[in-house]
Amino acid sequence: MTDVVIELQNLSVRLGERNILQQLTATLRGRTIGLLGPNGAGKSTLINSLLGFFPITSGSARVFGYDTRRDANEIKRLIGYMPENDSFIGQMSAVAFLQMMAELSGLPAETALERAHEALFYVGLGEARYRPIGSYSLGMKQMAKLAQAIVHGPKLVILDEPTNGLDPAARTRMIRLIKEMRATNQMHIVLCSHLLRDVEEVCEEVLILKQGRIVHYSNLEEERKANKRFVEVELAGSTPQGEYEFAEAVAGLGCETVFAGPSRLKIVMPIDVDMKNLYVLAAARDLQLRRLNYRRDTLEDIFLKAMDHRPIETAAVPPPVPMEVPNGRL
Amino acid sequence: MAVYKRTYRGYEGVLTSAWSRFLIITKYAWRGVFGARFLTSFLVACCFFPLGCAGFIYLANNLSFLSRFNVDASKWVEINGRFFLTFLTVQSSFAYILTAWIGPGLVAPDLSNNGLPLYFCRPLSRTEYVLGKFSVLFLLLSALTWIPGLLLFGIQASLAGWEWLSKNWWIASSIFLGSVLWVSILSLIALAMSAWVKWRIAASALILGVFWLGAGLGAAVNSVLHIHAGTLIDAASLIGIVWSDLFGVTRSSGISIEEAWFALLGFCVICVTLLNRKIRAFEVIR
Fold first, then answer.
1. What are the sequence ranges of the domains in chain B?
2. Residue ranges covered by each domain of chain A
């Protein structure tokens, strides 16, 4: 098994008359990988293609080095999958349901029973484990789905919108569980969500999809380690030309700059650039720095920028760039 | 990991063999089926007729016992192909009722609860899933048809002796082949109908309807158009034609034995096609 979790090579999936995924190419290695995108972006289709549910039209997809077409059973042996929608066998008790799922994954019956109990306790359904799943609340069903995804001890767990329909407390519990699973270092996690907050809290790598194409790849972990300062300033007292000259001067210090709106400038400052330089440059142009906020380039910024971008057409995912907009106005 | 620790751990232990994985589906479906008391009562009721037949076979082989009561039963107690055909016809009716009762509960809940992705994200193919569910019906219906049929044949052979067995051994293969054909068709129709409508009650009605409507429509076509082709959509008549041929009983139906076999094959193909379309992790809306 390679250290590459998922490898896509010009992956295209066509369902009926529609091209759902188009020429996806990416190599993902992170312990927690986020699939982000608006509804209909192709996130679930990508997952379903990795699981072999949808046929690949062209290109290839590999999971831990196994080809999804040739080695489907090998991949399924290593994967745990939590589907987006309600998905259960209603008349069975949670324990019987999980035992069956574990046995289907290849575990002997006694081990499957033991792990079914453990998994239900782990997700907090210990007291309700003998109840039929059909009688569970929505939050409990989500937890039961998570339990069935991990009951057989997979190497990769794919979670499709795990916090869907959960109240804030249940969502917090779910995110905490996912973080705990990540912390064990025994599995990789693919989190598919349209909720930026979920992905940002949990993931190291993020792949943003739009209309069936990859529009952005971001290694959040690298960015967190980059030790750069993100500053947002609001300028006043000058013309747009003056603001533009200020931005150029700041860029001359070695900073990356981008206008985020009228008179609003985002700056990525290397660690060796002193803050007082900004005040000096502003004073020299008779500019007022009205608001000055330290902030990270949040996933929301990345996502919103990605939604305005053209899809990446190149064959490889670009290296992580903290702020990929060039200097100057957008 | 002990339950109280509540931590996650991977699994590195042994795995069961892949070829037998479909039997897990059978095991759990079987457990669900026998959860209903009705089934146990029904299976007990289904044993009465084979027991009566066993008694009849005993009497037929002990005519001297009847002659004590001045009964000359030598003509109407002959154990032959017709006897076993009658046995199979009665038992197949029980099998039909049982299929309409338990068949829809095997697949429809999985589909209506969107449970199939959970099966197929594991190393289990669609064929294995269908095979697992099919096995439940096959085993249950076998217990009503060819297993008691062969037991009766064995009783008769042991009582009648070698001479009878050497002349009638073909009846055993007819019992087995005829039963397996009926059981397979019933099982496939039950699975296909419940996969199609995804609703247990409607599926039960549809399973009954396939035979009743087929018979009615076929008879209407034959009557109105003065042809025999209507029989081709009447599954019960088709199986009757095949059984009559297998048990060496003459029966006039208007269609040939080959046509009956092809029509039954057609039923199977339709059912398998329907299952192939419906038993999927996700249905693609085109």
1. 20-278
2. 6-223, 227-308
